[in-house]
């Protein structure tokens, strides 16, 4: 990258989804960009127009932190990591960039606005009508939804809707060709790892998955990113993390996933019937995503991991679900649509 970065993009470190979304969008922007994150970034996927600023961690320290003031979610006192990461963003802002994208952090969004940077806030599902989220939305020149308006939550304030550009169902796999056939009686299980921070918990355990596989004779399960239990049945495969699970998703008869954005949109791109089981996340994020998918007729949404004896019926019913409504959510133009918004705003606000 030879020209000064015009766009900054902050990607939260929880899970893999924020960085994956950032790279899918930044690969299509025309402007030079800097990715700010403390999450791992796959260097082989880094677009040539993108540099990385590795931020120090800002995790809560042992013993907890002082409660934040009312307009913020996280503002620990005397935390070196928080100070250093904000200083890095401020140093970059002093070079005169045009735009800062925040995915996601109320504090970074408000701080960037205080640095006189135009801010784009990436929206997520969940109950986000609290004062800190509203402050971030009001600080932004635009909100970017990486999902179609059809998945909008009924309780979203009209002011937030009007400020939102709906990019469509954004996935790194959008537009990839699907196989014409699938492997009968196969389940691909993705997500459920509980990597969303201290307020999160997994939707299932290794024992849960082993029991479900054992209770569904004739079905073969593959758990992407999962760990084998001590009594894993032969019908359960645990290959570990797979960088490109698209062939496996697209060739399975049924996909079971958490309610994370990337897991559900990657399932939509793969186009196989989907069962969603939300993990516990702050602001009920995955619960609201699962509800939105169910309202759209795109997935079977469950409240929690079912008892082993329920799985045979769940899989049989899911296998008969028409995947067309789910496939329609995966928009191959969504990353480019999001990138166009950022490029247009960068031109508008260029110093």
Automatic annotation (TrEMBL):
Gene3D superfamilies: Glycogen Phosphorylase B. It comes from the Bacteria. GO terms for molecular function: hexosyltransferase activity. InterPro entries: Glyco_trans_28_C (IPR007235). Residues 248-303 form the Glycosyl transferase family 28 C-terminal domain. It comes from Rubricoccus marinus. This is Glycosyl transferase family 28 C-terminal domain-containing protein. Pfam families: Glyco_tran_28_C (PF04101).
